[in-house]
Amino acid sequence: MAIKAVLFDFSGTLFRVESTASWLRAALTARGVALPPDEEARLALALDRAGALPGGSPTPDAPGHLADLVARRDESAELHRAAYTGLARTVPLPDPGLYDALYDRHMTPEAWQPYPDALDVLRSLRGRGVRVGVVSNIGWNPRPVFRAHGLDPYVNAYVLSYEHGVQKPDPRLFAHGCDALAVDPADTLMVGDDRRADGGAAALGCAVHFVPHLPVSRRPDALRPVLALAAVGGTAGPA
């Protein structure tokens, strides 16, 4: 049976966030703060190691006072901001306003780049009559990112954890995605980069396909197999 709908993860699947160095530089510029290059590089590395950039390097074991926030960060906008600004605050920065500036920066379209094949794959699915949804663990609205990069016309529904108060791998979030597209889970393929989070769709009866979480320049065509899977019926794919 052919797949009738494809659910995509956002970060690391359709889009990749900018580097931590670029993220920090943009926030410094916004705050009018200038640092020597070696100090800027040191702080960027420290923020990266802290997992402070949403969508960037995986968050390591969070400090005790942040553990619950980090575990539940995608259940609401407030938790998401508190978790990531909290992680950033484990790195002393020269201007207290930088913590909020960093968080605000990562929500801008300029901070994100679609993978090279994302637009073509979404456009091809639309042309075949396959419905497309975005199911994301996130604490903010990524729709402006999709609009700015030209992908929004090919997305039928956005199902965002913070809007539902539940985060992947909970099957309920994938169920919301199937309901939004009016499809049965058995006719649906979930595509993501996180085996634990995105793999939760299998419990609902969805087929699952994984793509590697790599920088845009190193992943030119990992989404293209989705077109074949959608044509013949989805099966689990390699990470």
TrEMBL record:
- Organism, by scientific name, is Streptomyces spectabilis
Gene Ontology molecular function? hydrolase activity
Coiled-coil ranges (or none): none
Q: Which UniProt keywords apply?
A: Hydrolase
Full protein name: HAD family hydrolase
Which PANTHER family does this chain map to? HALOACID DEHALOGENASE-LIKE HYDROLASE (HAD) SUPERFAMILY PROTEIN, PTHR46649
What would be one Pfam family of this protein?
A: Hydrolase
